[in-house]
Design a protein that fits this description.
Elements: E1 7-9, E2 15-18, E3 39-44, E4 57-62, E5 73-75, E6 95-97, H1 109-112, E7 114-121, E8 126-135, E9 142-146, E10 150-157, E11 160-164, E12 167-171, E13 175-179, E14 184-188, E15 194-201, E16 225-228, E17 236-245, E18 248-256, E19 261-266, E20 271-274, E21 295-299, E22 309-314, E23 317-319, E24 336-344, E25 359-362, H2 372-380, E26 386-388, E27 391-398, E28 403-404, H3 406-410
Parallel strand pairs: 9-17
Antiparallel strand pairs: 1-16, 2-19, 3-4, 4-19, 5-18, 6-25, 7-8, 7-28, 8-15, 9-14, 10-13, 10-15, 11-12, 11-14, 13-20, 16-20, 17-18, 21-22, 22-27, 23-26, 24-25, 24-27
Length: 434
């Protein structure tokens, strides 16, 4: 790439960036002649007639237009599936999986992508899918564009270098990145291997949640999101452009690198965020706030307050509340919850089984909560301020039912004894003693 990697700060901003001085046209988005002989191209992330504050688009000024590519040929989906899927049936059970191992045959980010659950409909643009990757080689001469939705990438092990049309983003565990629908990119592995989670969002783009009574500060601050600056390569050779479209997978030949955007301006661009900068809001009196208080980003649903999918984290934090049960409470929920662990121990599951790189799924209205060990410890604990550290868990929480894939149910990672973690919860009821 032509310029050292760095970032612009802010969420939803209108950014301007150029890798060569004067590459951005002045006054017109698509003048008759673009500086340096570049080509003007518009990338729209919303309908042209969307409300002004919801309208997403970016003008890119590139060496060659995106239409210059070979014919797309359909290829195998591999283990990357899309909604709707009809088999297997959704079990009325709490589910938990062991971490996904690295395959014996090294695969890149795309080849290793494995779908665990989906909901909604990729063609109707609502719902989401939960994937995992376990890559051991870089994409090198291969690139990818997802026409089906946005990708929220959550590394659990190893760093990723996301080389995009807009510039380069580097992320490590404790950070996330979002590459939105239609953006071309490539994944390099600086450490030779990497594993993590991916949320593919078919519905509305992710936004910061409303803060309501919290006020102007708290949770994820807009200033902490980072978007790359322009960086390009003018490179010819034999390349492959991979594309996911309407649930199918394709590839086409390219004689040049598609990362040839010299300048761009707009508010539709990839970004990263450091989860360690999340400002946790918690109680300092009594009772237990709902997990929605930990929402980093949300993809709004059709019903206000009921998200297509939320991204929620459980970071290091102080636990202070008086006379209050501290771990997550037992509950049944309208939302369906896929949970993952980046590092450490989740406070509701201290006995093992929920490991970094693993996951669990509690679908709509299925009861869940702290295991027996966590429950016994919580009701007997001395209630004093306690700092919960060395842990980072997260949740993809959706209004739609998550349907596990065949691999999720039969791929050898599903734990058969997950429900046993609640069997030891003691009966303490005594009607004669309050």
């Amino acid at each position: 790439m032509s310029e050292k990697k760095r970032y612009q700060s802010g969420f939803g901003n209108h950014f301007s960036s150029e890798a060569l001085p004067g590459a951005l046209p002045e006054g017109q988005n698509s003048p008759q002649k673009v500086p340096y002989g570049l080509v003007a191209e518009l990338l729209s992330g919303s309908a042209f007639t969307a409300k002004r504050h919801e309208n997403l688009r970016t003008w890119v000024y590139r060496i060659r237009p995106s239409v210059v590519h070979g014919e797309y040929q359909k290829i195998s989906k591999g283990r990357w599936l899309s909604a709707p899927q009809h088999e297997p049936n959704v079990p009325a059970a709490q589910l938990r999986w062991d971490p996904m191992s690295y395959p014996q045959k090294a695969e890149n980010f795309l080849g290793s992508m494995t779908t665990f659950a989906t909901n909604g409909d990729v063609a109707m643009r609502h719902g989401s899918a939960v994937h995992m990757y376990a890559a051991q080689k870089s994409m090198d001469e291969q690139f990818f564009m997802n026409g089906d939705g946005d990708l929220l990438i959550v590394p659990q092990e190893g760093r990723l270098e996301l080389r995009t049309e807009f510039g380069t983003i580097e992320i490590e565990p404790n950070e996330i990145a979002v590459v939105q629908r239609g953006m071309k990119f490539q994944v390099q592995l600086p450490e030779g291997k990497a594993r993590g989670y991916v949320l593919e969002i078919y519905g509305a783009h992710l936004v910061l949640p409303y803060l309501g009574p919290i006020g102007s500060s708290g949770l994820a601050n807009a200033r902490d999101f980072e978007t790359p600056v322009a960086a390009y390569e003018d490179k010819t050779g034999n390349f492959i452009m991979h594309c996911k479209f309407a649930g199918q997978h394709y590839k086409a030949a390219l004689d040049h690198s598609p990362l040839d955007v010299v300048a761009w301006h707009g508010n539709y661009a990839p970004y990263k965020y450091d989860l360690r900068k999340f400002m946790t809001i918690n109680t300092v009196s009594f009772d237990h706030p709902d997990p929605s208080i930990f929402t980093v980003l949300t993809s709004p649903g059709e019903i206000e307050g009921q998200a297509n999918v939320d991204f929620v984290i459980f970071p290091p934090r102080w636990m202070v509340a008086q006379n209050t049960f501290r771990p997550p409470y037992f509950h049944r929920n309208m939302m369906s919850e896929y949970m993952g662990l980046i590092h450490g121990v989740y406070d509701a599951k201290p006995a093992g089984g929920f490991e970094p790189g693993g996951g669990s799924l509690h679908n709509c209205m299925l009861p869940h909560g702290p295991e027996a060990k966590a429950y016994e410890g919580a009701i007997a604990a001395e209630l004093k301020p306690h700092f919960l550290d060395k842990t980072l868990a997260f949740m993809f929480e959706s209004a739609y039912l998550y349907r596990p894939t065949d691999f999720a149910m039969n791929g050898g990672l599903l734990q058969s004894n997950y429900a046993d973690c609640w069997k030891g919860i003691p009966k303490l009821f005594n009607p004669t003693k309050r």
